[in-house]
TrEMBL record, chain A:
The keyword ATP-binding applies. The lineage of its organism: Archaea, Methanobacteriati, Methanobacteriota, Stenosarchaea group, Halobacteria. One of its GO terms (cellular component) is membrane protein complex. Residues 8-18 have a biased composition (Low complexity). One of its GO terms (molecular function) is transmembrane transporter activity. It comes from Halolamina pelagica. Transmembrane segments: none annotated. This is Putative ABC transport system ATP-binding protein. Keywords: ATP-binding, Nucleotide-binding, Transport. InterPro entries: AAA+_ATPase, ABC_transporter-like_ATP-bd, ABC_transporter-like_CS, ABC_transpr_LolD-like, MacB-like_ATP-bd, P-loop_NTPase. Residues 24-239 form the ABC transporter domain. The keyword Nucleotide-binding applies. Residues 1-31 are annotated as: Disordered.
From TrEMBL, chain B:
The lineage of its organism: Archaea, Methanobacteriati, Methanobacteriota, Stenosarchaea group, Halobacteria. PANTHER family: ABC TRANSPORTER PERMEASE YTRF (PTHR30572:SF4), MEMBRANE COMPONENT OF TRANSPORTER-RELATED (PTHR30572). The chain crosses the membrane at residues 53-73, 269-297, 324-348, 368-390. GO terms for cellular component: plasma membrane. Residues 54-245 form the MacB-like periplasmic core domain. InterPro entries: ABC3_permease_C, MacB_PCD, Macrolide_Exporter_MacB. This is Putative ABC transport system permease protein. Pfam families: FtsX, MacB_PCD. One of its GO terms (molecular function) is transmembrane transporter activity. Residues 1-24 are annotated as: Disordered. Keywords: Cell membrane, Membrane, Transmembrane, Transmembrane helix. It is found in: Cell membrane. It comes from Halolamina pelagica.
Length: 239, 403
């Protein structure tokens, strides 16, 4: 698989000099929502750093704020207090378009229920984030799909793929932009154990390429594959 | 889909199989998708809900069809009517006022002054007599003028009539007269120099049953009326005013009849009628726009999560907006094109099966009607898609993903 490692986009980051600021960091992040019965605190003073080449499992029961934390890391949501830092710089001042660019260029998302576009083939789904760019990412999409073992499913649409295959298409999609960070929401949530292990193996390989991986989950299996496991309970982070 | 596609979740199982037929020409499809990313996404989205897209398009088809049919028919009727009445509109007919007995040299002089540079003055003597031809005899209206062409304006009628007779076609048929044959009027024999085709002319003088002779053949010195063929409707109005000013200031000596105002009222009526019909048709198009609005709202609410994914993986708001707008606009383009073609075909069909001449259908205005209706249909679809697309594209992705 050594030839594929470069395709994961990790090689460039692996050679980064020591002391580089972390790709993403949460610093004292609190997130509150105005709910029906008053204010709901989803995250409370969470500080967390994504390290390159490391798989972190964020474990916790439903409603513990895992998804909120992932949204903060993915620049999809703003903290009520505290700051989110991208390469050491706070992102608070970025416009919606600049955040979108950051997501397109630096972050890969793997969603719990795959979220593939049903009308697009596997290759088109994988190069979806680059669809409106001038450059052609088809070759890279084919490489990535081949790498996750779907070289013979390139032209299949999602309804022609099994759950595990869909999740692997989603993983390939998250790597199309050679991200610094891969954010996975319950990556094994809809998969049986064998398929889940295969997907986690895939994710470990990606991390070996220098990508910082954060997987939020309540699946113990993810914890077994992670370099670091933290627990999120009632919005508070525990190592 | 074959059963082998459901090869289970075991990633170890590899079932070799052929590519699905949907990707028959992937190279071309891929190239187009890369060239027009928004359009190719939009097309696929539309193909997902064919029935719904079809119904929304049908609304536009009906609306555009109504606009094109009514608009083109209105224009064609107006064109045909004006072609028939056109000559009438530019005529000013001056006749003696009540009780007067003919127009003399003084009146003629006044009329010529008023018409100078604006039209041709045709003094006309008239009377009635029995006319005999090779095959029969009939009573006919006689006109005396040297300028039959200016009066009737049809091919084959001489510019200047020095001798002989010009006979209306209906009368000529009854008499069995042709060009070159002879007709007899009150004992005098005249050679027929031309036949007036009454179909091609419209004049207060009914030319079909008339005989035109040189004015010298009439006993009276004065003219029974003077017809002025003006160069334009404006000239006709100016001539009528000029004649009234010159001859009727002190006493009512002549009566001046100009059909210009009648004609402009006819034109106004057609404009009003066309406007009304187009407004009714336009309403159906607006209703179609509402249905596009509805369809797009349904579409974006169903695809909320998908749109959230697009935004999350780095597709910009305006790119999502563009894709959705292209989707709505495509409904308008399809419906508009189909509606325009159907509408034009129906109007041509009507023209072929009625007395409406095809030449009145194929006028530049009708091209604009078809193009305008198409454009309006596209615009309506675009506007119908605007709010749903904006709402979907501007929703924070974290909200969309939750949906």
């Amino acid at each position: 698989m050594s030839g594929d490692r470069e395709a994961a986009g990790g090689a460039a980051h692996a050679t980064a000099p020591d002391g580089d600021p972390p790709p993403l960091r949460l610093d004292g992040v609190t997130k509150q929502y105005a709910g029906g019965g008053g204010t709901v605190t989803a995250l409370e003073d969470v500080s967390f750093t994504v390290e390159r080449g490391e798989v972190t499992a964020v474990m916790g029961p439903s409603g513990s704020g895992k998804s909120t934390m992932l949204n903060m890391l993915g620049l999809l949501d703003d903290p009520t207090t505290g700051s989110v830092e991208l390469l050491g710089e706070p992102v608070a001042g970025l416009s919606a378009a600049e955040r979108t660019d950051v997501r397109r260029e630096r972050v890969g998302f793997v969603f719990q229920d795959f979220h593939l576009i049903p009308t697009l083939s596997a290759v088109e789904n994988v190069r979806l984030p680059t669809r409106f760019l001038d450059a052609d990412y088809t070759d890279r999409a084919v490489d990535l799909l081949t790498r996750v073992g779907l070289g013979d499913r390139l032209r299949h649409t999602p309804d022609e793929l099994s759950g595990g295959q869909k999740q692997r298409v989603a993983i390939a999609r998250s790597l199309i932009n050679e991200p610094d960070v891969l954010l996975a929401d319950e990556p094994t949530g809809n998969l049986d154990r064998d398929t889940g292990e295969a997907v986690l193996g895939e994710i470990n390989t990606i991390a070996d390429g220098g990508v910082g991986v954060v997987a939020v989950t309540h699946d113990e299996l993810v914890g077994e594959y992670a370099d670091r496991t933290v627990e999120l309970i009632d919005g508070k982070l525990h190592d | 889909m074959t059963e082998t596609d459901q090869s289970g979740d075991d990633p170890g199982v590899r079932v070799p199989e052929t590519e699905p037929t949907a990707a028959a020409d992937p190279a071309l499809g891929d190239r187009l998708a890369r060239r027009f990313p928004a359009a190719s996404l939009a097309l696929r989205n539309l193909s997902r809900q064919r029935l719904r897209a079809g119904l929304a398009t049908l609304g536009i088809v009906i609306g555009v069809f109504a606009v094109v049919t009514l608009g083109m028919l209105g224009t064609a009727l107006q064109t045909a009517a004006l072609a028939e009445l056109g000559g009438l509109g530019n005529q000013v007919i001056v006749s003696p006022a009540d009780g007067g007995d003919g127009l003399g040299a003084r009146e003629l002089g006044g009329i010529r002054q008023a018409a100078a540079g604006r039209g041709t003055v045709v003094p006309l003597k008239s009377g009635g007599a029995s006319v005999a031809g090779p095959d029969g005899q009939s009573f006919a209206q006689l006109y005396g003028t040297t300028q039959p062409a200016a009066l009737f304006g049809v091919d084959g009628v001489p510019e200047y009539l020095r001798q002989g007779a010009v006979v209306g076609d209906e009368l000529a048929e009854g008499l069995g007269a042709r060009v070159g044959s002879t007709v007899e009027i009150e004992g005098n024999r005249y050679r027929v120099v031309a036949i007036i085709d009454s179909e091609g002319t419209f004049s207060p003088i009914r030319p079909g049953s008339a005989v035109v002779l040189p004015p010298g053949e009439f006993v009276a010195d004065s003219y029974s009326q003077v017809v002025v063929q003006a160069n334009s409707a404006d000239d006709a109005r100016a001539i009528a005013d000029g004649v009234r000013e010159r001859l009727n200031t002190r006493e009512e000596r002549v009566s001046v009849l100009s059909l210009t105002s009648v004609l402009s009222r006819i034109t106004e009526f057609f404009a009003l009628l066309n406007g009304f019909l187009l407004a009714v048709a336009g309403i159906s198009l607006v209703v179609a726009g509402v249905s596009i609005f509805n369809v797009m709202l349904m579409t974006v609410s169903e695809r909320r999560g998908e749109i959230g994914v697009l935004r999350a993986v780095g597709i910009h708001r305006n790119e999502v907006l563009r894709t959705l707008l292209v989707e709505a606009t495509l409904l308008g383009v399809g419906g508009g094109a189909l509606g325009s073609v159907l509408g034009a075909a129906v109007v041509v069909g009507i023209a072929l099966h009625t007395r409406l001449p095809l030449s009145a259908v194929f006028v530049p205005t009708n091209g604009l009607v078809a193009l305008g209706a198409f454009g309006f249909g596209v615009l309506i679809a675009l506007v119908g898609g605007l709010y749903p697309a904006y709402r979907a594209a501007w929703e924070p992705p974290v909200e969309s993903l939750r949906g």
